[in-house]
Amino acid sequence: MEAPSSLKTLCRYVETTLVPQDKTLNFTIDKEVFGLERDTFVLPEDITQFAGMEEIGATVVAVYMRYLHDLLKQANICSMVGFIDPATVSANSGTIADRSRLVAARLQKTDGEQIFMMPYNPGRHWILLIVRAKRETVYFLDPLPRNRVVDEEGKNIVNGL
């Protein structure tokens, strides 16, 4: 698959410019994306890891979700899909009960038919949970073909709702 030209340009900038390692790209993630407004930043190494198909962190996933939200907004369908901040639910983000409360609070701000994308990293790789609160249904999507077992911690976060 060919990378978008904007990503190629960004990677060339990071690779060819003498960018100090502490130089950041700052982003504001609007309240409508995750339910609260927050500022975040991406480091040059985050961009090269993303472009190189290396392991990425929650910040990169969150910024990408902001981009997806912008696309949904342009298509006038953002009311159909909501996002849960991956930094609030992934491993090492507090107790399972705390993470369940954060997810429940986010789901309460829905009209009922909206689905929520919830990237989750149990510590090994990213999986995607798609939550349909009104139907009390959660889909676990794991990109690794050998992982056919639902991560127990992710399951406990959802069951705690």
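[next item in queue]
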Amino acid sequence: MGVGEMFGSEFLGTVMMIAIGVMVCGSRSLPKTGAYRNDWINVSLGWGLAVFVGVYVAWPTGAHLNPAVTLARVIQHWSDSSVTLNGISVHDGGIAVTMGNVAIYLTAQFLGAFVGACVGFMAMRRHFAEPANPDVTLTVFCTKPAVASPLWNVVTESIGTAILVIWITVNGGTPTQVGPLAIAMVVTVLTMALGGISGAALNPARDFCPRLAYQLLPIAGKGDADWGYAWVPFVGPLIGSALGVCIPLAFGLMP
């Protein structure tokens, strides 16, 4: 697979996922939408299905869409040199775990998350021109904890991401090897469980780049982007990624 195809797969999949996620959150949070103040299940299912769409779009590269997933693949490769980025053997067209290929994945994910946030904003541009609580408009784009406690918020994000990565890791060795719909269900239930606690970022790019978009986009009455908290949904998922690989390794559950 060429560099352009590799970049395009992860980039487009991430754009689709983030754009849909922003639109789901915006529909629930912005006062004049028809879905205003919808149930939290609406957001959880919406984000799960956003992942479903992104995974299908980015299937050629293994649909990471998340630096935490890419990091997990790198750690797996350290313990088993046959592991590739897209789960296919190198002889059958697998993408080798190299610094160059990892850099392409990460660049595509971060740029895709930023562009996706902008696309979501454009789809709801008229609603963002209406007055709204600045804290509410911020959470359309990125996460905000219900109770601000950075250490415990990191713990929350680490645990959530570890569960996600353990599932991704162990699922590859099960007889069914269920795909995009199953991962959508996992994200849905994790959002139900932790969305009301820390926002359930589970993905450094998903939080950091939309937060940057929020700061740069012309949103009426917006407040601070809360950069003092931004490190939490960045660091927490990376810790969870490492745990999500090391735990199955410790129990001999690697496929």
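[queue empty]
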